[in-house]
Every structure is written in structure tokens, then in C-alpha cells.
Amino acid sequence: MKPERAFKLKTGRSYVQSPCATLVYDTPAGVPFAITWMAAPKLEDTMKIVVIGGTGFIGSSVVLGLDARGHDVAVFSRGEREFKLPGSVTHIRGDRDRLHDSREALQEFGHDAVVDFILFTEAQAEGLVEVMAPFVERIVGISSCDVYRKYADDYEKILVEEVLQGAQGVSTTVLRLPAVYGPGDRQRRFGHYIRQMKSGADTVRFPADKAEWRFTHGFVENVAAAIAEATVHPAASDRTFNVGESVTPTFKERLQQLGVNAPVDRRTALTRTFEWGG
Fold this sequence. Notes:
Blueprint: E1 5-8, E2 14-17, E3 21-25, E4 48-52, H1 59-68, E5 72-77, E6 90-93, H2 103-109, E7 113-116, H3 122-132, E8 138-144, H4 157-165, E9 171-177, E10 179-181, H5 191-198, E11 203-206, E12 217-219, H6 220-232, E13 239-245, H7 251-261, H8 266-271, E14 273-276
Parallel strand pairs: 3-13, 4-5, 4-7, 5-6, 7-8, 8-9, 9-13, 10-12, 11-14
Antiparallel strand pairs: 1-2, 2-3
Helix pairs in contact: 1-6, 3-4
């Protein structure tokens, strides 16, 4: 589908806007652009942003990036996960499923936006809107590119999106994330193959049925950058975005890209072959 129009961010990267738009990040094949945007000078007005679940795999990178750009950031979490917050970041302790109990603390911080990484059910989305809408300008809800797939009663992203898109009196942005990988990925999506590469093996084996499979992935720091950009950019208001690569390689091609850039002997990596069947 041809996009209706595109608009450039101040960073030079672009969003493509259509009925369900695509938030694109481009990098050389297999090479994440890391978080170089974090070190860039502050380009937007300072915002007060609360990140719910900001100590997790993706959320922690978003928190660090927003803080580095000069925004006033608060993390809302139970404080049970180890993550060293920068001194400039506020920590509001509370239970995600009991937001009402923390309403006063959240309101006291006073913020322009809230980013929620722990949105899995309709009830969680309704609670978020009820508590935050009266005093926040924008709600950014983290969804998934597999939004139409029902996994269980406690994972219904399509209902979450419907609640956010129908919210009254507050701007909302829905971000559908790809399969995210990188340091801290508890699913270890490519761990089995990376271990083969790091062992110096000349051949990396993978299941035959995955060879030509395509599914949008994202390096964690790239995805974090996309989330942060959408959070602070006014043109992302009241939009739903698919976050992903501009070109999606096959599974075999992705492993080849990872192989070239894996922290192993480059001579081995460049001559390594990728075969299926094991």
C-alpha cells in the first residue's frame, strides 16, 4: 500500500503515515544504529514522561534514551527487577495492576506523556485510561505486530488497542512492536545460533522450515529509539504505528547478517555457511 504521506523527524529518520502507519528505521544490513541518537543534542521541548515497566528489556533502553535527551523521566515499577536508574530519573513504586493506589504519586509528578509496557488485557488498558487521562496529555501504549493473534485470556492486544483508540479527552499513540532481540532478551531468540557462531563453527544449522520465513524483527536499541521518537513527536499523536524494518530479510539472510556482525573472528564469519536440516 502506498503511504498517504511521510513526515521527517528532526533526527532525519522518517515516519510513514497511512491508515495503519509504519514507523521505519534503516540501518546497514544487520548493523543496529545502537543509541547514537541518545547522545545527540536536545532537539525537542523538555517533557515529563512516566514509563510504566521501565526497568525491563525494552523499557530500560527507552528510559535511558529519554533521560539522555534531557527529558524529565519517572519509572513506575514495583522495584523488584535490578536496573540502576540514572540519578536524574524518578522512581515511583507501585503495582501496575493497582494504579488507582498510586494515583496521587503519579499526578504529583505531573507529566506530558505516559508510556505503558505492561498492557496485556482490556482491564489494564481501561485502568490506565481511567487513572491517567485526567492529567496526562498523551498515552503511549505498547502493542505487538501479532495483535490479531489471541494467546490467552491474559493477552489480548486487540482489546487493549480498542480501549486506547476510543479514549476520550486524551491523545493516544499505539505502537505495534516487532520481535525484539538484543542484550537482555530473555527469550534469547538467536542465542542458539549465536553460540554456534561464537564457537567458530564453519556451518550454522537451523530448521529447514525457517529458511525462507520472514517476520519483522528489531534490535532492542533501534526499537527503543522508535518508541522514544513517537512519544515526543507531536505528529505521532492519535496514530497507530507498526514499528519495524524497511526491508525484512528471510530467516537465513538474517542469520547471515548476524554472522557477519557477531563478535567472532571475522575471517571465520565471512566464510561461514548457513545450512538447514538440524
